[in-house]
Each structure stands twice: as structure tokens, then as C-alpha cells.
Amino acid sequence: MSQKHLKEAFISNLNGTSLLEISLGLSLPPLCLLCRGLLLILYHLRYGKPLSSRKYSLLLDFLVLVSPLLFSCTVLSPIMFFMPTIIAAFCAGIFSKIYSQRKHETRVPFRQIVKDFQKAYLDPEYIPAITVFRVYVNVLTSIGILAVDFPQYPRRYAKAETYGTGVMDLGVGAFIFGNALVCPEVRQKSCVTQPKFSNLARQFFSIWPLIFLGFGRLLSVKSIEYHEHTSEYGVHWNFFFTLAFVRLAASLLLAIFPKNKSWIVAINLAVLYQLILNTTSLKTFILHGSDGRDTRVGFLNANREGLLSLFGYLAIYMASVQAGLWLLKCRNSVKGWIEAARFLLLTVLVLFVFLHVSQAYADPVSRRMANLSYCVWVVAHCLTFFICFVVTDLALVFTKLLVKGSSVPCCWNVVKPPNTGTKRETEAVPVRTEGKLSHICLISAINKNQLLFFLLANVMTGTVNILIDTIHSKTAFTLCILHLYMFFNCLIMYILHAKNIVLKFW
């Protein structure tokens, strides 16, 4: 068997893992973020100033925000169920040290700190959880696309063949969800009136890099006979095409229907698509082709998974638009965000109940078809992921109240209450502080060039697979390669950010 066929077999016919393991895995990035924030606050408490060295900031960010994720999906995967507890205990230890080592003059009763925290006001124009969510989806995807080719990456985390919930199955949907959170329709102010189809026209011109990248990937994969999982998207289709067409179709729908009713459009799309799958031969066609023998003759047969799953991904996108609109409602207090987190948690619980019903009576989760269960699963886990980041940010806000003058990049800053000054005064503090700190934050660096980071990760993944026999790699070698690969990607983003370079061509 050729190397190409060996690698294709290595990532085929898999069944995924449990919902519980994926949920536990999702808690790791927020815990790593909390750990990094607490370490920076502890540094400020000890030395009386923030960490200003770019070199050490990059090293800290990589070792705390990225490296634990690499270990957790390889050598530490057998103890995945204990990883959140271990990191949480470490965070608790740092917090305890901060609390006990506060300066005597700043020590106030714990109850008073809690009251001050509940009354605290936050910058209403900046929601760090959205930025961090999108960056971490990108980082986890970049780790997964290379790590899956190594034997140390558990097969249960890879994409399931037909039915199942793999970590990488969630990654695809989460990428769509993250894109919709900041789409033009969400970011557009409600008071600004624009022609109905203006966003559609803008989207039409903004997707050309994705189309270009899609064709670039297609030509490169075919020309060098790179291994590919045909049942993932088809013979010619790939994720770049999916993302481009979903964005375009969503802009069309949002030009026709009110954007604040996008959740209704999402439900109708997902339910109608599932009904068609269950009541017609469409499901059989997606899984086995028009002749029932997995034929790939003709463009539709060749790319049936990629083309027909667009309906499911479009439903996820529309649901995320609704979530984005709701999240961007003006909330400028800790109390407001605690209430928002409660509402999101209730929504997640309802979605998980609906997921159980959908899997029992409609169809199990299938990324290959992007069916109703898959859509509900992705939205539920994405909202769970987001809630974790909101809670993390609030925990860091609370800790910063203990250490006067401390600050954490990509985290909320406490501002003056609206009634104590003008709006300009209220917003000046966080905007100015964020500007100081953003240049030493890996999250800000990746966020500034997200598409480039994803493209670079794809190119590097292809390069590593061409140069190295990944399937037979030893553990130490695998960890070394994965760390070098992620550090190189992060370093490029960090340098571009330090030089204030944004590579955007549209």
C-alpha cells in the first residue's frame, strides 16, 4: 500500500468520542487563559509593573495558552478527564497566593470586594470573549489538522466517517459559528440604515480570497497526489468553498429576512433539511451515491457531501448571527454579564435536551450530512465554549480588583460608571489600556490575521506531511514537530502584529 493510501486509511472509518469528553476538553482553553491572566497579575503584584518584554510575553503565552493543548491531545489524552481539575487546582493556587500577598493598604474585606465586583462597570464596546473564542477555534483547528496525521493523536478525536462526534467534527462547525459572530450584518449598528443588498454585495467581493484559496488547495492536492479524505467534502470540494458559499448565502437570506429573526430561519433550515433527509432518498444519495455503490461520476456525485452539507452549515451560521446580535446588545456591568451567562447556560441546557430528542427520533450526529443533530450539537457546544470564556473574563476582572493597577491583555477593564462622567471618559480607560497591551498578546496577534494564520497552518501541515512519515513517528519526535509547527505559526503572527501589519486583500 502506498504512503498516500496508508495516510487516507489512517484517518478513515472512525466513530468519534463521547459528548462528555468533548465538553471537558472545551474547558481547557478557558482554564489556560485564566492561568495566564493570574500569572500576569501575580507578576504585577510582585514587581509593581506589567510584563513588558515581548520575548517573554510570547514565551509565556505559547507555554500557557498553546502548549497544554498540544499535550492534552497527544500524550496526556489518556488522562483527559483529570486535566481540567489539574489546571483548575493550579489556578486556585495562584489566586490564593495573590489574595494572601496583597499589599496591606489595599486589603479590604472579602465581602466588600464582592460588592465592588458586582457594581463594577465594563467597556460596553469590547467583548473579549468573542475575540478569544474565534482565536482559540483557529488555534485548535490548526493543531488538529496536523496532529491527526500522527499516531499519538487519539483516533477518537478525528473526524467521524458518517455518524459520531469527534473533536475535529466540532471544529468545522465552530469555525462557521465564529465567522458569523462578527459578520457585517452583526457588526452593523441598528441606527445605521443601508440598502438591503449592500452587505450581500460587500460579501460577494470579500469571499474571493476564500474561492482563490479553495482552488489553490484543490490544484495543489491533486498535483502532488496529497492524501485526502474523499467522504469529508468530496473529490473537488473543500472547506474554503464551504465557508465562501455559506457566507454568500447567509448574506442573501439576511437581506431578505429581518436579521433579528435569523434564529427562525436557522430552525426552519435545519428542520426542513432533516425532514428531506428522512423522507426522501437524499440521505442514501449522500452516503452511497446515485447508484448505491459510492459512485463519484459527475460533479454532484463527486462532491455530494460538500454541496449538500451547505444547508446544515448555513443553519449554524444563521443561528450564530442571532447569537452575535444578542451578545452585542449594550451591557456595561458585571451584573449584566452574569445575567447574560445565566441566560446562555439555560439556552445550552435546552439545546442539549433537544439534541437528545433529535438523536433518538431523527438521526444521530453526522458532520458528513450536517444534519439537524449536528447543527444543534455545534451550536450548544459553541455557546458552552463562549460561556466558559465569559466566566474566565469575569474571574480575571475580580482578581484585578485585588491588585490595583494590574492589567491583562484581551480581558475586560473596569471603567467609571456612566453617571460619573461623559461617555468619552467612560470608554477612554479600556481603549487606552488595550492599546498598550495588545502588542504583547498572542491572542491579539492571531486575531489580527486570522485567515492568514489558518492558511499558514494548512501550508505547514502539507509541508510536514510531504517531508515526514507522520504515521510511524515516535512520541518525542511528534511532540517536537507539533511544538515547532505551532510556535512558527504563532511567531509569524506575533511579528506581523508587532509591526502592525494586517494582510487583508479585500
Would you spell out the secondary-structure blueprint of this structure?
Layout: H1 3-10, H2 19-26, H3 28-47, H4 54-72, H5 83-100, H6 110-119, E1 121-122, H7 128-147, H8 167-181, H9 184-187, H10 198-206, H11 208-223, H12 230-233, H13 239-256, H14 262-279, H15 282-288, H16 299-302, H17 304-308, H18 310-327, H19 334-361, H20 372-402, E2 414-415, H21 423-437, H22 442-448, H23 450-467, H24 475-498
Antiparallel strand pairs: 1-2
Helix pairs in contact: 3-4, 3-5, 3-20, 4-24, 6-20, 7-8, 7-20, 7-22, 7-23, 8-18, 8-20, 10-13, 11-13, 13-18, 14-18, 18-20, 19-20, 22-24, 23-24
Task: Describe the structure in your own words.
By secondary structure, this protein is mainly α. Helix content is 68%, strand content 1%. The protein is built from 24 helices and two strands. It has helices at residues 3-10, 19-26, 28-47, 54-72, 83-100, 110-119, 128-147, 167-181, 184-187, 198-206, 208-223, 230-233, 239-256, 262-279, 282-288, 299-302, 304-308, 310-327, 334-361, 372-402, 423-437, 442-448, 450-467, 475-498; strands at residues 121-122, 414-415. A two-stranded antiparallel ribbon has the order 1-2. Helix 7 (128-147) runs parallel beside helix 23. It is globular, with a radius of gyration of 23 Å.
